[in-house]
Amino acid sequence: MKRKLFVLKIVGIAILVTLAIALGFFAYFNLPGPAPSQNVGLGVTFSIPYAEGLGLDWKTTFIATLDDLGARKLRIPIYWNRAEKAQGTFDFSETDWMLDEAAKRGAEVILVVGQREPRWPECHIPDWVKQEGNDAFREARLTDFVGTAVTRYRDRKEVTVWQVENEPFVTFFGECPPLSREFFDQEIAYVKALDPSRPILITDSGEFSTWTAAASRGDIFGTTMYRKVYNPSQGYITYPIGPNYYRFKAALLNLFMGKSRFIVAELQAEPWAKGWVGDATVEEQYQTMNPSLLREYVDYARRVGFSEAYLWGVEWWYWLKETKGEPAVWDTARELFRAKN
Question: With CB atoms 3.0 to 4.6 Å apart as the test, which of 39, 216, 306, 334 could cross-link to 262 if both were Cys?
């Protein structure tokens, strides 16, 4: 009996200690964090298909991003299904045009290559590849596409970083084939062999990942950073984590893996709507993104203190201004970018 009570006591103490540690971490993660760093460079991710989906002229939107907004850091995907609509026939005219305009203004560009790239459905695979239904065929053709793209742009000075795939370990989201880690490693090595002069960025979820698989494979690690989202079963949710959550994970990677280069690859700066954002009312959209929240989230990213933060949603800002007569988000973003850049 005494032994049983002793065991129960030990178990109880262990549970209390575990709870105390968990509560301690929760409290630490939700502290305001350090003062906002003014050394965080602001950029945007620009997606042609998203701009088109909103009914925008993507070239006009891109020029406004550079000239009116003042963005000088860009993350640009080279969508496979747009650049190689037929096998072996490449059309990089869209990327050429954007890089030319970026170069005229002294902007820096992260080029994203691969099959999984920013924006739904996440994997942008040409129809002619899908029709084969063969992993070996897809991987061979993808290797050819990536090699062609990297070779084409490795001499462009405005291209500063290669991103290989986008959040490849977020396998629970998107319409994608199963992740082959072996092929992914080969893809990274291939890009590095073609252009050893530039660092490689690998990205992962900020909220639902330890980051280790992604960070161990790249020169730079990029996290997503979302604050307020919509869940069909729970409604609108604000993640209960503060800037210290990201700082703590980065510190662990630096301690155990020697990783020191971190950026925010995707900072929430557009709504998380119940469906397609273009179908939602402005009032609904403003529940998860508005001028006040935009300032708050940029302040949050600056408290995390990673070197750069690429805002997600520049096309939506422009769409609000041009289509809905709501320029407040665009104007707020312009103030933030011009104050920094």
Answer: 306
Which residues constitute the domain of residue 253?
Answer: 31-340
Bridge-based pairing of strands 73-77 and 108-113 is parallel
Are the CB atoms for 35 and 301 separated by under 8 Å?
Answer: no
CATH code (residue 137): 3.20.20.80
Q: What is the token pair recorded at 7? A: 């065991």
pLDDT in tens, 35-47: 889 899 999 999 9
Distance (Å, rounded) from C-alpha 269 to C-alpha 291?
A: 9
* pLDDT beyond 90 at 48: yes
Residue 55 falls inside a structural domain: yes
Taking the mean position of all CA atoms in its chain, how far away is CA 215? 14
In order of 124, 177, 236, 292, the CA distances from 231 in angstroms are 25, 25, 6, 22
Which residues contact residue 300 at a Cβ distance below 8 angstroms, ignoring those fewer than 6 apart?
A: 225, 227, 243
The answer as to whether 157 is a domain residue is yes
pLDDT at position 32 is 66
Q: What are the DSSP calls for 59-93, one per residue? A: HHHHHHIIIII---EEEEE--HHHH-SBTTB---H
pTM of the model: 0.92
Total number of domains constituting the chain: 1
1 falls within a domain: no
Task: Give CA–CA dist 214/91, Å, rounded.
Answer: 30
Residue 16 is assigned to a structural domain of this protein: no
